[in-house]
Amino acid sequence: MKSSCFRLRAIALATIGFFLMALPAAAHPLGNFTINHLSKLAFKDDRATLRYVLDMAEIPTYQAMRAATPDGKMTQAQLDTWAGAQAQLLLPELHLNSGGAQVPFVLEGVKASTRPGAGGLPLIYLTLDAHAALPPAHATDRAIAYDDQTFPGRLGWHDVVVAPQTEPTHELLAYPNALLGSPRSITTFDGTVALDGHVIASVAPATNAAPAGGPVSAVRSNQLSDMLARGTSDWGFVLLTFLVAIALGALHALEPGHGKTLLAISLVGARATIKQAAILAAALTIAHTIGVLALGVAINIFKGYFVPEAIYPWITLLSGIVIAIIGARAVQRQIQERQPLAHTHAHGHSHTHPHDHVHVHATAAPHDHEPHSHDQGAHGHSHDHDDLEHARSHAIPGNAPLTFGGTVWAAMSGGVAPCPAALVVLLAAIALNQVAYGIFVIVAFSVGLATTLTALGIAVVRGAGWLQGRPQFERFVRYGPLASAIVIATIGAVMVGQGFAAQGVTVSPLAITALTALAIAGYAFSHPFAHRQAEVA
């Protein structure tokens, strides 16, 4: 009977879990980091009206509330006070120019409200109405220029429309699914407007591309934070939450990123064992978890002075530099192993003088040689089997694998970027005063991540072992470490190019990648040749 009840309860929990996972999370559709704003302009005779709409996702809302109140929670009165202060900060950043003259906006009213987001975290929605008196027109039309400079560089939907033009989001309340992957990024209007308000002509609006490296429109799985928000009163549901966390972590590992390419290439290059594959996957997962915790701490310490998504381009750049250095050193090491003179020993005297050889051979099997000596007068050489094996090992190119420590750092550097969904779990736990529970859920999420990565690593190691046992793949196995080192260096060079591009560098990312690759090649080839010249001399 007890067994039957347990099975029924397990089936019920599993059914609830899959049902919850199928439900759409109440997360912001453009991502947890976004700040979305819209300017709706209208002109009539000598008057301009503005309706400015602000829609803040979970993480910027969390920051704003933490900066405004000690506990990060706002009553409606506190929210109204915050909205009034925010309006005074926003209006000076909304620039209107008519006929070459700057026209200030006058505030008419501002309202703010919240609605639930992922994990019970709120989303702030603000509307601001203002007007401006335009200078008298000396013709039937006037030149108008508008520039929205609020929240520069932040990810999200940014748009400017002039009546009677319409926009597709119904004032940022319903974003079209077809446009989530490429949200609008328009912050200016420049054109000619008739006195009755219709637009006669306009310059193509400038589009500001969202900064690279951040989750611009990736819709993350927020079911986990929603489940965490239900608390710990039901231990069965807590267990289900942990199981769902493991499953979502495993699925999350299959998404782009997480250093999976680096993990596989590093394991092949290092000729790692299954145990090392597990260690490498665990290291990558630890780096990923530390990234989540570190970003959560930074958001709470720096509050409104820290832009969370700005950390992603820096992570890309710094990780790329680390990976490029590791790859360059690995390529250098592999080239050294393939130099014909890299392990010969030059002597400062000639071997052309006559000398007698005294050979002592044992009577054992023909190939069972004892150590032997050469009587060469001024000097002598002694060789044993260890020396011979050492020489033979260096005679085979690629026999020295990549160092395992270097591959660990390379994989960790590729997977340190924090997951936004896990970050929302942490922030929701802080808001609910359930930090320990939130950390345990993140650890469970990471266990699922580690399980998938470990399985990938073991599969790669098994595959490499299978190839090593096949004579037809001898050439592949022989040059595998060199190929792995080159791929790691290339990945680092590409990440450096992307990282610099995300910092606003005007040079093409492809050009930066090419320059980085040249620097890696120069480093890799210069040291072995210098080593050889020093030995020959």
Overview of the structural elements:
It is a single chain. The protein is an alpha+beta fold. 49% of the residues lie in helices and 15% in strands. The protein has 14 helices and 12 strands. It has helices at residues 2-22, 58-68, 76-90, 223-228, 235-253, 260-270, 274-302, 311-337, 385-395, 404-414, 420-431, 435-468, 474-502, 509-536; strands at residues 35-44, 47-56, 94-98, 101-103, 106-116, 122-133, 141-148, 158-162, 188-194, 199-202, 372-373, 382-383. A 5-stranded mixed sheet has the order 5-6-2-1-8. Helix 5 runs parallel beside helix 12 (435-468) and helix 8 runs antiparallel to helix 10. The longest helix is centred in the C-terminal third of the chain and has 34 residues, at 435-468. It is globular and about 85 Å long. The N and C termini lie far apart (86 Å). 40% of the residues are buried. Mean pLDDT is 75; it is low at 6-16, 18-25, 209-220, 341-353, 357-401 and 533-537.
Quick structural overview:
With 537 residues, the protein is an alpha+beta fold. It contains 14 helices and twelve strands. It has helices at 2-22, 58-68, 76-90, 223-228, 235-253, 260-270, 274-302, 311-337, 385-395, 404-414, 420-431, 435-468, 474-502, 509-536; strands at 35-44, 47-56, 94-98, 101-103, 106-116, 122-133, 141-148, 158-162, 188-194, 199-202, 372-373, 382-383.
